[in-house]
Specification:
Strand 11 and strand 12 form a beta hairpin. The protein is built from 8 helices and 18 strands. The longest helix is centred in the middle third of the chain and has 18 residues. The radius of gyration is 23 Å and the shape is globular. It has 2 domains: 220 residues, P-loop containing nucleotide triphosphate hydrolases (Rossmann fold, 3-Layer(aba) Sandwich), CATH 3.40.50.300; 77 residues, Nucleic acid-binding proteins (OB fold (Dihydrolipoamide Acetyltransferase, E2P), Beta Barrel), CATH 2.40.50. The two termini are 30 Å apart. By secondary structure, the chain is α+β, with helices and mostly antiparallel strands.
């Protein structure tokens, strides 16, 4: 298990990481979710050994890993830009790390074939990287990172530059690829859907702080603090002081006998639901409803109490 303890990084007067602690279990995928500039990429660079920290420690299976050089940490990295070597074939790109580690030729050849098959690119071994689509190039980059059998794979927003259809396809494939490779992973993103689809656990970051880490289901159902709730898209925060609650957008159902009544301010069709804003005694609340409604219309909704959670002060 990798364990980062109280990692702190300063860039001049800016605190990029503020006493961040994170454990990554064997074969676990931890997704670090946060806005741009919150310290996600700095966190990856610290784990990889590319960024020294000003305070803290990094251990692997209980042994100090802080002073281990980056190339000896057994860590693979995949970036937003796949940055394949343009003068090498696809197979030679995947082979690169193993060749640097002086793997025997026959093992390298078999491993290249195995990894290209695993990422869905069987038969691409002699292809020129210039002929690849964005999604194919990112799959090659993933195969290259996995080829030397790293103990941990770090993925720095690798899907951000892809169009939605390609991103969805790789989101579907990536967990199986990592599982088959037997690798633990830390994946950073600002995309909520991507985080919830990929993670065994999600770590929410903001302004260099790790705000919360939990399973996707538990995090969504019980964000605990207003900052985490709002970042996850839970805008319905009601109450005051210690009696504050978050009402999920999927908590409401149209019901003439419902306990919450209000006037519709806006209603937008979103394909599988209607995004409806209602002015109520609790304030302006937004819900995903199955039925359309018109601005100015008075409606009643029933609230599912299992989709309401208390929140603590930030």
């Amino acid at each position: 298990m990798w364990s980062l303890q109280d990692a702190t990084v300063y860039f001049g007067v800016t605190t990029a990481l503020d006493s961040v602690s994170l454990d990554i279990g064997e074969r676990e995928t931890v997704v670090v979710l946060g806005p741009s500039g919150c310290g996600k990429s700095t966190l990856l660079r610290v784990i990889a050994g590319l960024q020294p920290f000003d305070d803290g420690a990094l251990t692997f299976d209980g042994a100090d890993a802080t002073t281990i050089p980056p190339h000896e940490r057994g860590v693979g990295m995949v970036f937003q830009d796949p940055t394949l070597f343009p003068h090498r074939t696809v197979g030679e790109n995947v082979d690169f790390g193993m060749r640097m580690q002086r793997w025997p030729v026959h093992r390298r050849r078999d491993r290249v074939s195995e990894l290209l098959d695993l990422v869905g690119l069987a038969g691409f071994v002699d292809r020129d990287p210039a002929t690849l689509s964005g999604g194919e190039a990112q799959r090659v980059a993933l195969a290259r990172a996995l080829a030397p059998a790293p103990r941990l794979v770090l993925l720095d927003e690798p899907l951000a530059a892809l169009d939605r259809s390609l991103r969805d396809r790789l989101v579907d494939d990536l967990p199986g690829v990592l599982d088959a490779a037997g690798a633990a992973a830390v994946h950073v993103t600002h995309d909520h859907e991507e985080a919830f689809a990929l993670a065994d656990r999600i770590a929410v970051m903001d302004a260099g702080h790790l705000l919360r880490i939990d399973t996707p289901h538990q995090l969504y159902a019980d964000p605990r603090t207003e900052a985490v709730a709002r970042f996850l898209g839970h805008t319905n925060v009601v109450g005051a002081g210690r009696d504050r609650r978050v009402i999920r957008r999927d908590a409401a159902t149209m019901d003439p006998a419902g306990q919450l009544r209000g006037v519709v301010e806006s209603s937008r069709f979103r394909g599988d639901h209607h995004d409806v804003a209602i002015l109520t005694d609790l304030g302006l609340l937004a819900f995903n409803l199955d039925q359309p409604s018109m601005p100015g219309e008075t409606i009643s909704v029933r609230i599912d109490p299992t989709r309401v959670a208390p929140i603590e002060p930030d």
